[in-house]
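Hi F.,

I've been meaning to write this up properly since the lab meeting, where we talked about keeping a consistent format for the predictions we share between groups. The idea is simple: the sequence comes first, exactly as it goes in, then the structure tokens exactly as they come out, then a line or two of notes. No screenshots and no reformatting. I'm using this chain as the first example so we have something concrete to point to.
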Amino acid sequence: MTTKLGYDARTALLAVQRAFYSRLSKDLDVSVYDWVPEDAPYPYVVIGEATELADNTHDSFGRTLTQTLHVWTKSHGGFGPALEIVDNIQRSLDHRLDMELEGFRLVTLRLDQTLTMRDPDPLVRHAPVRFRVQVEQNAE
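Output, unedited:
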């Protein structure tokens, strides 16, 4: 059975994760991971947690997502090195609508929140960066 639109609703989580990984791997000078190897050297970025909510219209399936990225650095530079990476992430993603999403059309992409956090190791800094993404599913 299909919906009244003639096709089924799909999750956009994987399409967004793949697009973020592809873009950031090209634009950043640090490694980008979904799963971090035990011996990964600092600094690096991890594609982290995501949320997805339905954002449908009468004639389309839509989704509003959040995607969190985690910036990890280790140095005597305080938050400076982490914030330089955060700045590069924001330049790469914020309000950029030229990202290809498999099966979806990107409607909006904007920064939602950035945090700075200290780690028990006094040299390690952690900066989660969350983006809000709105997409519309392509008709199949």
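Notes:
Strands lie at 31-33, 44-54, 62-74, 104-114, 117-118, 124-137.
Residues 90 and 111 are 7 Å apart (CA to CA).

If this format works for you, I'll send the rest the same way.

G.
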